[in-house]
Specification:
Bound molecules: coenzyme A
Number of strands: 3
Shape: globular
Strand order of the largest sheet: 1-2-3
Number of helices: 17
Strand content: under 5%
Order of helices and strands: HEEEHHHHHHHHHHHHHHHH
CATH architecture of the largest domain: Orthogonal Bundle
């Protein structure tokens, strides 16, 4: 008997279990569309910016020009890391994955926040913390990465937005407008996604009346795994094995036959497609054409066809993100940290929503262990 037939109230992986009420974002499974506070994510990616998206997620409404200017100015003023955080990153082993580095950074950062002593349910203090958390993500990711490469961190430029600053602090020179726009759109697409594993984990953390920085550390740790955010890095490693669409097709057929999990495909919530993937695929292929390298798009198409024909599985956002970032020259270990830079906004919105109407999150379980037995003193075992 399977776990589901034996225990009708148990849903493995909590599939289909309603774990909360939210007003932050919504996945419409019928149309495969995603909205943030009611606004389609594609419109935000096309016409808005990551900063507008972060404001929308935190405050529930799109900003006016004056509100956006003020929000941008606060982000610019909050991007720098305290010296102690740089020191902590410098002390990390050189082979530490950037996801672990950024977890270190936020663990140290919490105590430097001007609202460190605030009550965990202080809404205004939590919004102020959220802005500081979002502002520092790209600085922490690039500082950690550069230090691991034996280079000094590049200080943020107050005139650049999040996407442009990330590229500037990574490479030490300003990126062109097109690259910045692509990066900005990908941050918007990655910013939020309902009760995904990392947002849920962050909510669980703060629901004990812990603080936002602790929730961010939880979120990063949860995002790291390849069944969640880590899939974009794994997808690129997979793609790099292939020299042609034919090779990719044969490998994919074999992987399905041997029941391998193929990274960047499938989703717990969507059934037919992940619209973010469709949007990003167009961009990734456009980058390929601009760069005179359409190989990855062709390989991706071949894999997608087999996955759909054989298993009705579709690419998720991590699949096109992988080769889009690769074409933009971003080192693979930074793909999931880019997701962190974006998702700090969604995580903060979730944690604030949780704390505004909090109840401890503590599910039950089914016990299948031994019956009650007496304690046996150690000398008699
Ligand atoms: C996202 C994911 C974890 C969702 O998992 P889930 O809802 O628990 O679904 P399951 O893993 O139970 O998969 C259901 C079926 O589809 C198959 N499947 C799902 N995703 C698959 C994938 N990427 N490659 C191959 N088979 C896959 C499973 O093997 C299973 O097949 P079966 O019924 O024949 O055993 C899963 O699709 C996955 O592992 N994808 C790859 C990792 C990834 O891209 N993660 C990023 C998500 S945004």
């Amino acid at each position: 008997m399977s776990a589901t037939t034996e225990y009708p109230n148990y849903s493995p992986g909590l599939q289909g279990v309603i774990a909360g009420i939210t007003t932050i974002s919504h996945i419409d499974v019928e149309t495969s569309s995603l909205t943030y506070r009611g606004i389609n994510v594609h419109e935000l990616a096309e016409h808005g910016s990551f900063e507008e998206t972060a404001y929308l997620l935190l405050h529930g409404e799109l900003p006016t020009q004056a509100q956006l200017d003020a929000f941008r100015a606060t982000l610019a003023a909050e991007r720098e890391l305290p010296g102690a955080v740089i020191d902590a990153l410098r002390a990390c082993p050189k082979n530490m994955h950037p996801m672990d580095q950024v977890k270190v950074a936020y663990s140290v950062l919490g105590a430097f926040d001007a609202d460190y002593e605030a009550e965990p349910t202080d809404h205004d203090a939590n919004v102020r913390k959220a802005v500081r958390i979002i502002a520092k993500a790209a600085t922490a990711v690039t500082a950690g990465y550069r230090l691991s490469q034996g280079k000094e961190p590049v200080a943020p430029d107050a005139n650049l937005n999040t996407a442009a600053n990330f590229l500037y602090m990574l490479h030490g020179e300003k990126a062109d407008d097109y690259t910045v726009k692509v990066m900005d759109a990908s941050l918007t697409l990655y910013a939020e996604h309902t009760f995904n594993a990392s947002a849920f984990a962050a909510r669980v953390t703060v629901a004990t009346l812990s603080d936002l920085y602790s929730g961010i550390a939880t979120g990063i740790g949860t995002l790291k795994g390849p069944l969640h955010g880590g899939a974009n890095e794994e997808a690129m490693h997979m793609l790099m094995q292939f020299n042609s669409p034919e090779e990719a097709e044969a490998w994919t057929r074999d992987a399905l036959a041997t029941k391998k999990k193929i990274m960047g495909f499938g989703h717990r919530e969507y059934r037919k497609s992940d619209s973010r993937a469709g949007y990003l695929t167009k961009i990734a292929k456009e980058i390929g054409v601009r760069m005179g390298n359409t190989k990855w798009g062709e390989i991706a198409d071949a894999m997608e066809k087999v996955m759909w024909d054989e298993k009705q599985l579709f690419p998720n956002v991590d699949f096109p993100a992988a080769y889009a970032y690769y074409l933009l020259g971003i080192p693979i270990p930074l793909y999931t940290p880019i997701f962190v830079i974006a998702r700090t906004s969604g995580w903060c919105a979730h944690m604030i929503e949780q704390l505004d109407n909090n109840r401890l999150i503590r599910p039950s379980c089914i016990y299948e262990g031994k019956g009650v037995t007496n304690y046996v003193p150690i000398a008699q075992r």
